[in-house]
Amino acid sequence: MALPAATVTHMHLCPKVTGNVPHIGGPIVNGSPNVLIGNLPAARIGDTLVCVGPPDKITQGSTGVFINGKGAARLGDGTAHGGKITEGNPTVLIGDSASVPVETTNFNSFKDTLAGALINTRSPGEALGKAGMIQAKKRLGLKTDPRYIDRYHGPDDMAQDNSGILTELESKGCNKNSTAIAKNNEGYKQCSKHKNKSRAKLMSRRKHKKIDEPSNRQGGPYTQDEIDLWKEVKASGGDKRHLSTHTNTDKGLVRVYERDDVGDITEMIDEFILEDFEKLKSAIEETFKNE
Q1: Where is the composition biased (Basic residues) (predicted)?
Q2: Which of 36, 80, 161, 281 has its CA 20 to 30 A from that of 205?
C-alpha cells in the first residue's frame, strides 16, 4: 500500500509513559542530507524524532524505496518507542512497509564477538551487554585505544572515534530496555566527567608506583602506556566523549546513548538488533553453564 512520504517537521504520536509522564511525541528532526520532498529532508529508517526524555527513532520504512541506503519513512510507519508517524506529504506516495532488517554476520565476525564478550565478564547478561558494545563500536567506527587495559573498577572501554576524540564506553545488559548506569561512592555517574577525573587521579598518582609489578588483578600488571592514558584524561579534567551501550538480553535490541559531562543522556545515536543474537545468547549461556 502506498502511503504519504514523511519528512522533517512531520509529527509522530508516542504511547510510551515514563513514570506518570506521557511521552506524547513530536516532530521528525533529521532526514536525508540531499533528498528533499516538498523542500524538506526526506525521513528514513534510523532518523530521529523529538519525544519526552530520550529521543525516538524511526524503525519502519519502505522495502522498495531507499533513500541514502535506508528505507523511506511514511505516514503510519513505526518508531522505537512503539509510536507511529502521523503526518506525511500527500503528493508523494511511497509503497511497502517493513521493520528494520536483522543483520547477520559472517562466521569469523561471530567468533570475534563471542570471544570478546567472554573476556572479563561474569554472567550471561554482562557478556551479552559487552557483545552489544563490541558491535556498536564497529558500527560507529570506534577503535580501542591501544593504551587501554580492561580493569574491574574502570570503564568498559576507552576508544578513539573517527575524529581521534577519546571516547569512554560503558556496556550494560538487562532483560528490559533500561538506560540505567551506576554511581561511585562519591555519587558520580559512570560516563561522567567527574568520575573519570577521579579515576584519572587515582591511576596517575597511586598506581604508577606499581608499573610492571607482577599482579593477578584483572588486566595484569599496570603499564606505563596505561598510566599515560589516564594522565591524559587527568590533564583534560575528565573531559572527553562518553557513550553507554544498553543491550536488551531478551530481545537483542542494542541502543547507544551519548551522555554529557554529568552522565545524563543527550541523545540516542544508534539502535540495532544484535547480529546473530540467538546464536550468541545460546553460546554465552552454554559457556557459563559449563563453568
Answers
A1: 191-209
A2: 161
Question: What are the tens digits of pLDDT across the range 65-75?
Answer: 889 888 899 99
Check: CATH 2.60.200.60 for 2-99?
yes
Tens of pLDDT, residue by residue over 104-114, are: 445 568 889 99
Tally of CB atoms within 10 A around 239 = 13
Type of residue numbered 151: R
**Residue 60 to residue 91: CA distance in whole angstroms:** 20
Residue 41 predicted with pLDDT over 90: yes
Q: Mean per-residue pLDDT for 20-44?
A: 92
Asked if residue 234 lies in contact with residue 201, where contact means CB atoms within 8 angstroms, the answer is: yes
- End-to-end CA separation in angstroms for the chain: 52
Give me the residues paired with residue 245 across strands.
171, 256
Q: For residues 3 and 208, which has the higher predicted lDDT (pLDDT)?
A: 3
Q: Please give the mean pLDDT across all residues of the chain.
A: 88
pLDDT grade, residue 63 (50/70/90)? confident
Q: How far apart are CA 143 and CA 137, in angstroms?
A: 7
Question: Taking the CA atoms of the chain, what radius of gyration do you get in angstroms?
Answer: 21
Spans of all domains in the chain = 2-99, 107-289
**Per-residue pLDDT for 101 more than 80?**
no
Q: How far apart are CA 255 and CA 252, in angstroms?
A: 10
